[in-house]
Design brief:
The protein has 347 residues and is mostly helical. The protein is 54% helix and 6% strand. The strands form 2 sheets. A 3-stranded parallel sheet has the order 1-2-3. Strands 4-5 form a two-stranded parallel ribbon. Bound molecules: adenosine-5'-tetraphosphate.
Length: 347
């Protein structure tokens, strides 16, 4: 189906999610949250979801999950998501996600799922012990997006493969049932920080669930902790290069330069124009100062919002009602297309 026809049929709508599987990191902020806020400011209709059902694909302590969900919601609001303009809610409160995921489990092919690198990374060596949910995760993610007929998904680079699977599922569903029902969603992978790397290993992505807290900056870290983590960040002994080509085989240096660029709203060329030839002894404190000035207002506001968890729950509840109002008619039409009888009276 021509992209142009689809563009005409589906109004631009953004969906994106973050797992409350721990505290939000600088990677989540630069790769996702900061860009969600930019999209909101562009006036695009946007739905943001704390994907608690994805989080439980690996074990979560119930109390920690509850706390992380509220804290992530506070992080979204503190970073600039306005829950009146955008829709902000947690996944389990809108049942269409789970319902559509089941249908997509029956559309997606085993061969497609077997190619998913995130499952291989997260399941590690003992795949037999991984949950079935972890394996089926990409079908739930496709459901998250397509339950809203979302056309665009702002994500970090790590999610590219999942977005491709979402497109494959939409195309196969449309083809199998002879309809033009689900949009073929476009990923929005933009900016200099689409893949923020671990501070301990420049080849691994910065992640909430990395066992080493020193590998990441948490949005709740205080100024001293941020400065200490950057000071101790792994680097090589060379000064920063004058050009970006000089970063090619220097994963850790490249990561710190990209983080600086994303926080300052410039590109790596501009960062190197200022710091090329300087050592990390000079660069790291400047980077820490920049990170503290960007993150400390967010962490202060998160702290304030977390004083009133009841208000956060109310915001998530209202967001879920608005999300449900979009997803329910799409879900009902989907059941109809699939041939399922829906005769129960509602309301
Ligand atoms: N390091 C990163 N750099 C850029 N973007 C990132 N994102 C996550 N880490 C980085 C983006 O944040 C959004 C939400 O991701 P998620 O939390 O749902 O899942 P994840 O990618 O699996 O994140 P984590 O931190 O690695 O979680 P755990 O440790 O629980 O698996 C996505 O848009 C993602 O691209």
């Amino acid at each position: 189906m021509a992209e142009a026809t689809q563009a005409a049929r589906f109004a631009m709508r953004i969906f994106s999610g973050i797992q409350p599987s721990g505290g939000l990191t600088l990677g989540n902020y630069l790769g996702a949250l900061k860009r969600f806020v930019e999209k909101q400011e562009e006036g695009i209709e946007a739905i943001y979801c704390l994907v608690d059902m994805h989080a439980i694909t690996v074990w979560q302590e119930p109390e920690k999950l509850r706390h992380a969900t509220r804290e992530a919601a506070a992080g979204f609001i503190a970073a600039g998501i306005d829950p009146e303009r955008s829709i902000l809610f947690n996944q389990c409160q809108v049942t269409a996600h789970a319902e559509l995921a089941w249908i997509f489990n029956c559309v997606a092919r085993m061969g497609w799922m077997n190619r998913m690198t995130q499952f291989k990374d997260k399941a590690g060596k003992d795949k037999e012990a991984a949950s079935l949910g972890l394996y089926a995760y990409p079908a739930l993610m496709a459901a998250d997006i397509l339950a809203y007929h979302a056309t665009h998904v702002p994500v970090g680079e790590d999610q590219r493969q999942h977005l491709e699977l979402t497109r494959d599922i939409a195309i196969k569903f449309n083809h199998d049932y002879g309809v033009d029902f689900f949009p073929v969603t476009e990923p929005l992978i933009e900016g200099v920080a689409t893949r923020v790397m671990s501070l301990r290993d420049g080849t691994k992505k910065m992640s909430k669930s990395d066992p080493s807290d020193m590998s990441r900056i948490n949005l709740t870290d205080d100024a001293d902790t941020i400065a200490q983590k950057f000071r101790k960040a792994r680097t090589d002994p060379e000064p920063l290069p004058e050009t970006t080509e000089g970063l090619e085989d220097r994963a850790e240096a490249r990561n710190l330069v990209n983080i600086y660029a994303a926080l300052a709203g410039v590109d790596a060329v501009q960062v190197l124009a200022e710091y090329g030839g300087q050592g990390f002894g000079v660069f790291k404190p400047k980077l820490a100062d920049l990170a503290v000035s960007a993150l400390s207002p967010i962490s202060a506001e998160m702290g304030r919002l977390m004083q009133d968890p009841g208000e956060i729950d109310a915001i998530l509840g209202r967001g879920a009602e608005r999300a449900e109002a979009i997803a329910r008619p799409i879900m009902e039409r989907c059941y109809d297309i699939v041939g399922m009888v829906r005769s129960r009276r509602t309301g």
